[in-house]
Amino acid sequence: MKQQQINKESETTGAMLRHIRIRNRKNYLFKALIIGATVMCTLPLLFILFYIFRQGFTAINWQFFTSLPKPVGETGGGISNAIVGSILILLLSCVMAIPFGVGIGIYLSESPKSRLSYYGRLSVDVLQGIPSIVIGIIIYQWVVRPMGGFSAFSGSVALALMMLPSIVKSTEETLKLLPESLKEASLALGVPYYKTIMKVIVPTGLSGILTGVILSISRVIGETAPLLFTAFGNPFMSTDIFKPISSLPLIIFNYATSPYHDWHQLAWGASLILIVIILILNIISKIVQRKWKVQF
Amino acid sequence: MESTILKTRNFNAFYGENHVLKNINIDIDKNSVWAIMGPSGCGKTTFIRCINRMHELTPNAHVQGSMQLAEEEVYEMNPVLLRRKVGMVFQRPNPFPTMSIYENVIAGYSLNGIKLNRKEKDEIVETSLQRAALWNEVKDTLHKKGSFLSGGQQQRLCIARALSMNPEILLLDEATSALDPISTAKIEELIYELSTQFTIMMVTHNMQQAARVSNKTAFFYLGELIEADATKTIFTNPKNEKTQDYIRGHFG
Amino acid sequence: MPDVNREERGLQLKEKAFKNTLVIFALLSVVVLLAIFITLLFSSMPSLKALGISFFYNKDWDPVADNFGALPFLLGTLITSFLALIISTPFSIAIALFLGEYYKKGIMAEIFKNMIDLLAGIPSVIYGFWGLFVLVPLVRSLEMKLGVAPYGVGIFTASLVLSIMILPYSVSLSRQVISMMPGHLKEAAYSLGATRLEVITKITIPYTRSGLFAGLLLALGRALGETMAVTMLIGNSHILPTGIFSAGNTMASVIANEFSEATGTVYTSALIEMGLFLFVVVTVINIIGKQVIKRFTA
Ligand SMILES: Nc1ncnc2c1ncn2[C@@H]1O[C@H](COP(=O)(O)OP(=O)(O)OP(=O)(O)O)[C@@H](O)[C@H]1O
Ligand SMILES: [Mg+2]
User: Which of A40, A119, B156, C164 has its CB 3.0 to 4.6 Å from that of B132, i.e. a possible disulfide?
Assistant: First the structure.
């Protein structure tokens, strides 16, 4: 009797062991699958970066930065107009977006529970999700039509509107993390509220706010859709903010979709520059975040 | 002659509906050290935050009754200007993390846009740090960030920052409770020395501390001022039973 | 004394001005959003009036004949977006598990997290450009093998690039959700002898289901409005799409292509109506997604 029982037991144990082995094998297989899928997803990234660096490098030389695009049929030429245009548009957008973004962020962190904060936060969230092409339409209606034509200024407004939400959010998040005691220290010294905010709170949160601003620039610097009907593009050098202006993403779009090899080369070069700028901005933002972090 | 610097009459404080200070009547005499004592939650912090009107920064907080600082009705003054006359030191040291030791000390001036020349600044920084008994420890590192100091040094830096404004009253809310015994001893010593020039009100849970450094003690219980008298009297011969119980360690 | 009074008044004024400015800024964010909606609505009026509901089921888009039907673009938008979602979802969940479960910390997590972030940082127009020169030839040869017309560009190509582009959005949310999974639940399962795979499929995924769903919603919101890459790769055809390899147009790509050249009130207005539609749909999707997340994290 006893013998029988033991036999039976070892039989079930065997089955169980086999079962466990299968389960374990599945487990490892799954992990391999996950790793495989993850690695596979990074391939396009590497592929894109590699391709752009390879194509872009052959296009870039000194002339590329200093001269204007050549007409069809002539090789060489550069994208100086687009570089100048991008810088101009972004500077203007920063001038518009930073005060509003930081201001709204301060309001949200200072009155976190007010009804206005609730709707403000909701609006900013919704703004962030608006498709960039729709922003283009809006600014066309708000700025381009009343002003009677495409302009660098209208492009800046469009990009500013796109930068705003992330500046608001990074400001709010940064300031919310500052201890209440910081504000109290200042108020207790008889420093007025507005000076407390501007001279104590904002400087203490500066690294976080700045990180947000830099990231928002890196996010809009490649935006094309909102510029299509605002900045519009311009084959010539222009620094007039009330005239159409070129920009890196616009030049990439226009030349990439053209049938000319020389123009494709310019577009690859512009793409490389754009990617490098974005990488640098991301690195700077990480450095600012780490190095400037205020120690309490 | 003793003159009164702070006087409250039927003073009440609320957090919304919550009535936390009830009919407080107290006279604080000049150049004295007052210890504010009482069990946790009895309203000590609330009381001293009412003196520099930090209380009203809490949403829905409000007060009733009269409080006078040097004959002036506190709640009719501009809170910002009032706070320049009333120094406050908090439980946790809170130097400005972006500023150097030097900048921290004169923050009361620089943040308020009061223009000073280099010499005046140097002077204020040195006297304030001297008064806070910190000068010798930091005089060579004045331009380092204040947050690199030890907790006790940071707290003394905060005291120096408050003293730099020459306040009429210095309020300390459990200013030593986050510090080690040695730093605590230093700050106690400092308070003792400061009492010749300033009026000091310190909240403390530590009875030995109160006995060591204060000459007057106010005992609060459940939002009421139970007894206010010379520290000696309070500790040796309290009139009220509740004070007695507290002194003997029966509650709190 | 009068000096103090003047100082007092100055202070009060400045404090009030500062607080009011902040309030105005905050109000402005609400006002701008409302203004966007109202602008879109009003600018769509001519088209709404002239075309009514037929706009959405009319399958002909012929500006020359003043005939505006958005059905091809509506379908194009839906097909590209959902196809992209279908392609990217398995990968996004895999990466989320990789970063939120298998390699939560350490060098691997850092590397892949940064790579995925970088993926989100590449501009749409560059995805489109790259797609044109790298993906289009590949798709073309695939189409030749499959025996369909080898255009290379078309809905499939656009979806493919779109699936890469939306990946970071769903990953970032899903990863957070998965890594927020309470440890004690998993430990309970492990203590019963479950393997990691079993814990993931039987505990983690069901538990985080709503969060993962929100991630997909937000990715979908991105996909619907994505413009440049799609415009460059979808083939820009006004004809009703017949399959995933046919050329098409999305609403965003039609706007991008035709808005600045549109003549006539109804034409422009019809394009703006598509913008309005996109705005409303994307906003609703985003709000639902955020709500789901809020409920999940609460
Ligand atoms: N921000 C607030 N909102 C509402 N009620 C508060 C707030 N702060 C304190 N209170 C209440 O007011 C009463 C007094 O609090 P207070 O902080 O003044 O006590 P305390 O004597 O300083 O105590 P402790 O010794 O613990 O510091 C307490 O009952 C507390 O619950
Ligand atoms: Mg207290």
Answer: B156
